[in-house]
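Summary of Year 1 activities. Much of the first year was spent building the evaluation harness for sequence design. The harness presents a backbone, in tokenized form, and records the residue chosen at every position. We chose the following record to illustrate the format because it has been used consistently in internal testing since the harness was completed.
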């Protein structure tokens, strides 16, 4: 499994941003093999984690036209700075908790 870690300092996260982000999340999950997506914003800081079955799926997603357009608008309007890290997960475990 692979993870993409997106970290950003937001400039302006307007209604258009929310709509585009929602549409892209759904597209990644339904058409590009994204296994899970989680994003958190605190003040102007945003972090998003997306989990993928393989690196090829990430590359295909990165080159999709809607995603490329959102990246451009993100650089121009929504984000002051951002970084992307791609890593392979070698081990993962969870605690399910008590019922």
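For this record, the design step produced the sequence shown next.
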């Amino acid at each position: 499994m692979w993870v993409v870690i997106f970290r950003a300092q937001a400039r302006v996260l307007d209604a258009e941003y929310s709509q585009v982000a929602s549409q892209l999340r759904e597209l990644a999950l339904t058409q590009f093999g994204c296994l899970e997506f989680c994003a958190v914003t605190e003040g102007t800081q945003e972090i998003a984690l997306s989990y993928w079955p393989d690196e090829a799926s990430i590359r295909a997603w990165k080159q999709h036209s809607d995603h490329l357009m959102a990246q451009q608008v993100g650089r121009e309007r929504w984000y002051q700075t951002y970084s992307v890290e791609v890593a392979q997960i070698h081990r993962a475990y969870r605690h399910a908790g008590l019922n």
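The chain has a mean pLDDT of 92. Quantitative recovery figures across the full test set are reported in Table 2.
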